Amino acid sequence: MRWLTPLILAACFVAGTFSQAAESRYEVVTGWPSLPADYVLGLCAGVGVDSHQHVFVFHRRERQWTNPFPSEPIAESTVAIIDGASGKLVGEWGANQFIMPHGLTIDHEDNVWLTDVGLHQVYKFTSDGKLLLTLGERAVPGADHAHFNLPTDVAVLHDGSFYVSDGYKNTRVIKFAADGRFEFEWGTKGAEPGQFNLPHGIAVDAKGRVYVCDRSNPRLQIFDAKGKFLDQWKGPQIGRPYGVEVSTEGHIFIIDGGESSAKQSDRGGKAVELDAEGHVLDTFGSYGSEPGQFRMGHDIAVGSDGAVYVAEGAGKRVQKFVRKVSGSQQTK
């Protein structure tokens, strides 16, 4: 288990292993995105990047999380497509389709996978919004192989098979074949290795390892392709993982959403870059509303060019971060 002792923790702080006082290799791209003045994103729940460096954002417009959920779909588009280089809005879709947008994943064929916690469903779309696959029964929660209960995210393998983190109520991960046939599942509610308390974000690496943000425990759990527990990474350097992404170079990026119920000075929240062994390589960001800060970072994505994108819940925005070049400020 990757949990640093206070002595090692102090040493890492001095060495700048994950200290936010140490200078990060990343900086925010100011002025990105450049959206129309009247375009309302609302809570940004999911973010992903396709092979064309188009950034897809799954957002809620003016919709608020209520109990019970609203019954009418959001009338406006809920999927924004932003050019990664310019920050311009280049497309949108998803009007009158979703109750409570949540997870977004781009697969290796640039298909867009979405989860709706209000409808208890998982969807596969083409990049321009053509529906290819639907799993779950509309607005009907359940715990069997044909139903979900507030599913949160999807991770897709090269063969088209996929994992679903399910989610706020069922506290499990389910594996499906490419055509949507159930294969297996694992996880029960609890804090022991292999158990979950809100599996929120999910990703897979090139070796088939499955990374699950166990948000409310809080920790990042790692499993093999069959759901066998391998490791857990937790502690101050990890925080409360909301979203996770594996970059093309095999680094694991998580967004620590912080603790929204804490007083403002203690809320925390940062982006973390780790190697495949769980060693922290970099952190950037902190709680706040300024460029480069986060208010409930909810999801994270990494482009093939190394740019990092963070979708914020309470902050209601998406931000872009890039590696610093000769210490100079990047522009969009």
What features would you highlight for this structure?
38% strand; 332 residues; globular; four-stranded antiparallel sheet; 24 strands; disordered N terminus; single chain; mainly beta
End-to-end gap: 39 Å
Instruction: Indicate the proportion of strand residues.
Output: 35-45%
Q: Biggest β-sheet: count, sense, barrel?
A: 4 strands, antiparallel
Overall number of strands: 24
Which structural category do the helix and sheet elements fall into?
mainly beta
**Helical element count?**
1
- Basic shape: globular
Secondary-structure blueprint of this entry?
Blueprint: H1 6-15, E1 26-28, E2 44-49, E3 54-59, E4 79-83, E5 89-93, E6 101-106, E7 112-116, E8 121-125, E9 131-135, E10 151-156, E11 162-166, E12 172-176, E13 182-186, E14 199-204, E15 210-214, E16 219-223, E17 229-233, E18 241-246, E19 252-256, E20 270-274, E21 280-284, E22 297-302, E23 308-312, E24 318-323
Antiparallel strand pairs: 1-24, 2-3, 3-4, 4-5, 6-7, 7-8, 8-9, 10-11, 11-12, 12-13, 14-15, 15-16, 16-17, 18-19, 19-20, 20-21, 22-23, 23-24
What features would you describe in this structure?
By secondary structure, the protein is mainly beta. Helix content is 3%, strand content 38%. It has one helix spanning 6-15; strands spanning 26-28, 44-49, 54-59, 79-83, 89-93, 101-106, 112-116, 121-125, 131-135, 151-156, 162-166, 172-176, 182-186, 199-204, 210-214, 219-223, 229-233, 241-246, 252-256, 270-274, 280-284, 297-302, 308-312, 318-323. A four-stranded antiparallel β-sheet has the order 1-24-23-22, with no helix packed on it. A hairpin with a 5-residue loop joins strand 11 (162-166) and strand 12. Residues 1-21 have low confidence and may be disordered.
